[in-house]
Structures are given as structure tokens and as C-alpha cells.
Amino acid sequence: MDHFDYRDGVLYAEDVPLTRIADEFGTPCYVYSKATLARHFRAYTEALGSHPHLICYAVKANSNLAVLGLLARLGAGFDIVSVGELERVLAAGGDPAKVVFSGVAKQEAEMARALEAGIKCFNVESRPELERLDAVARRLGKVAPVSLRVNPDVDAGTHPYISTGLKDNKFGIPVDEALAVYALAASLPNLKIVGLDCHIGSQLTELSPFLDALDRLLALLARLRERDIEIEHLDLGGGLGVPYRHERPPQPFDYATALLERLAGWPGSERLTLLFEPGRSIAANAGVLLTRVEFLKPGETKHFAIVDAGMNDLIRPALYQAWQAILPVDTRHARDTATFDVVGPVCETGDFLGKDRELAIAAGDLLAVRSAGAYGFVMASNYNSRPRPAEVMVAGDEAHLVRRRERLENLWAGEALLPDVADGEA
Ligand code: LLP
């Protein structure tokens, strides 16, 4: 459930009409709902109840400081994949002791900064990474807490670009090799084994792949115990899907209940802390992309609604053929209905936000692209020299600008003319 609803024909974010946000902050503009973010986060913590757990929000889904700060205040930990994400978490008041660091290519400087900050755990994805981490920790006189990200080879049944738990994917350590790599980790003096983790993919709409992955991790855990390697936490990654259209993914409650049931017979499971790294299920339906129709362009075979947001603002439809609902913001005007491709200003045929949408709209109308709170702004680019949009967070009847629209001069701020041109030479 989210807090984007129509009231008297106008789409609201909580108690603020989106028309007001467009007037105040312009378009295109991302709009987030604080209450929705909080609700989605609490769905996880409440589902896990008294079982020891930590919800490490996947920063990559939406890394705006206001989002991170809100989740930090609610007690969230964070799953990061770069030092940039770590610095964001710290800038937002997040607790480094609740941070897990994922990613296949952590650099030495990133490891060093994370060790200095005192993060909870490095999710290590390969043997050479383990050796690099040990060396960095030794240089700093520290012991690095590690978990191995195991690739359980289960099919998440999702889009190939966001499926990560198959043998063919670059992620994680193959489950058959994990025992040997744990033995290596145990032998390296500047590492401390604390966890075991996996992340099998994103936008999963069934529980069975998660449960298959859990079974494989538990089998591995048993073999680790035989070798006196004890684990404090089990991290099942992120990946729970959201309803974009007709999908009916399980709720965090169903997910947690099924996992806890499966764990119940496991000796010592009540002491095993469960970690999750949800991104999309917390942020996606807590945000919309607000855009204005520039022109309607009727065609012989297709009608186009050309809007002021493009693939550089929201790339999911172009990149994954993702379907996201597109709603008119103000339905109080009488308009004819037609079928439109909703397209952006970018000079690419792939620049669309939605295809074949039944809409009753006119030029100048506002549209809201739903489910845009995750993998929206964070994947935005400046392609076609378009400044990235503003971000606004609604809380009750207040709308806060949480990132101002980029200015044109930001676009070339880090660039330089060649010296002879700058000197005015021919
Ligand atoms: N943990 C790890 C190690 C991950 O790689 C990811 C996502 C997550 C957690 C969070 O997964 P979530 O709960 O959000 O499914 N840009 C794509 C999604 C890429 C996901 C990458 N990894 C999209 O827009 O659909």
C-alpha cells in the first residue's frame, strides 16, 4: 500500500496535490512519500518480530540523503556497493556499524575507508577480494569482518539483467567452492568470519527461489559447523518484487514467515541474526516521476504524447522494457481518450516511458509515472545535456525539496577547454 491517491479527481502524494508540487518545483520532478517509505520499512521489521534481524536498505535503489536519513532514524542498516554510498550513509546520519558492503570490485581505498568507518561486514565475492581485504586490514592494523557472498545457482525467474544467482552470473562464489574459500578466510589473520550471504536477483515474485537459496545456504552452514566455522548472521540479500502492473509478489510478512518456518528446526537458529538488503520493495512504490505533456503528436499508426521527462530521467522502460503505470494527475477536465506512446525529448527511438497507454490528456497536462521511487533518479544521466530532475519528499501536507534541479552550469562544471582555446590562440 502507498500514499498516492486521487482526491476529487486530483492525484495526491499524502496530503499534497501533485499539481502544487509541479507549480512549486517544476517538472520533471521525482516525488517521494515519507509515510510510504516508513510503512514499507516497518513491514520488514514487524514481520521479523523478535527474531534477531537487521534490515540493510540497499542504497543503490534510491540514495537521496532524505531517504537514507529517514530510514536511519527508523533503525535501518544499509547495504552499500561503493565508497560513495558509504559517504552518503554517513552524511545522512546512518550508523556505520549497521553497514554491509557488497559489490564485485571493491578497491583498496574503498576497503580502507570502510574499515576506518567501522562497518558491520564486507560481503566478499571472490578469493582475490578476500586476499586484498586481508592485506588492506593488515596495513591498517585492523581485523575485517567478512561474509562470503555465495552464488547458490538458483533461477530467480526474473529479467536476465537483474538475475544474479545463476552460475553464469559474475556475482558471488559458486556454492561448491564456498567451503574452500571459507577455509582460506579462516586462515587469513586479519579477517574475521561473521556471516554468510547471497542475493539471487531482483523483482522476484515467488517465494520458492528464496527458499531454495536458503536451503542451499543452510546445507553449507552445516558443513561449516563441522569445521568449527561459526556464523553470526545469515544475509539473504534483497530482491522481493513489487506490483508494477499485474504482479502480486509476496509481502514481507509472507516472506519472513516462510523463512522463519524453514529455519525453526535448525539448531541454534534463534541466535542466527537474519539480514535483508531490500531496495525496490521499500522505495519503488514510494515515488513517482512527475512530468508535463509538451505536445500531442497524432500519427498515422501511432499517437505520441511527448513529455518533458525522458530516458535520461527514468531509464527502466528503455533498458528493461519495464512497464510502469502512467496516470493523469488532474482528471477534472473533459478530454478525449486515445492510445499513446508516452515518449521523451531525447533523440533516441528507445526514449519512451510507456507504450500503448489509454489516456485522456491534452498538451500542458501533468502525468505521474508510478513506481519510480527505486532505480529512478539514481540511474538518471545527463544525456543530451539535460540537467537531472529535482527530488521532493512529501510528509503529510508539506513538500520538501530534497534535491534541487541541476542547473545548466552544473553540466560542464568539471570540464575544461584546451589551453590554446582558453588562451584565445588560433
Ligand atoms: N543486495 C545486492 C547485493 C544487490 O545487488 C541488490 C540489487 C540489492 C540488494 C537490492 O535488490 P532489490 O531489493 O532492490 O531487488 N536497476 C534494476 C535493478 C538492479 C538491482 C541490482 N541489485 C531495475 O531497475 O530493475
Automatic annotation (TrEMBL):
Stored SUPFAM superfamilies: Alanine racemase C-terminal domain-like, PLP-binding barrel
Catalytic EC class: lyase
Occurrences of domain Orn/DAP/Arg decarboxylase 2 N-terminal (ranges): 35-284
Required cofactor names: pyridoxal 5'-phosphate
Pfam families: Orn_Arg_deC_N (PF02784), Orn_DAP_Arg_deC (PF00278)
InterPro entries xrefs: Ala_racemase/Decarboxylase_C, DAP_deCOOHase_LysA, De-COase2_C, De-COase2_N, De-COase2_pyr-phos_BS, Orn/DAP/Arg_de-COase, PLP-binding_barrel
One function term, GO molecular function aspect: pyridoxal phosphate binding
Pathway annotation: Amino-acid biosynthesis; L-lysine biosynthesis via DAP pathway; L-lysine from DL-2,6-diaminopimelate: step 1/1
Orn/DAP/Arg decarboxylase 2 C-terminal domain: residues covered: 29-373
Keywords: Amino-acid biosynthesis, Decarboxylase, Lyase, Lysine biosynthesis, Pyridoxal phosphate
Residue positions of the active site: C347 (proton donor)
GO BP terms, alphabetized: lysine biosynthetic process via diaminopimelate
Residues noted as binding substrate in the record, renumbered to the chain: R280, R316, Y320, E348, Y375
Annotated positions of the N6-(pyridoxal phosphate)lysine modification: K60
Subunit structure: Homodimer.
Family, as annotated: Belongs to the Orn/Lys/Arg decarboxylase class-II family. LysA subfamily.
PANTHER family reported in the protein's UniProt record: DIAMINOPIMELATE DECARBOXYLASE, GROUP IV DECARBOXYLASE
Protein name: Diaminopimelate decarboxylase
Organism per entry: Halomonas korlensis
Organism lineage string: Bacteria, Pseudomonadati, Pseudomonadota, Gammaproteobacteria, Oceanospirillales
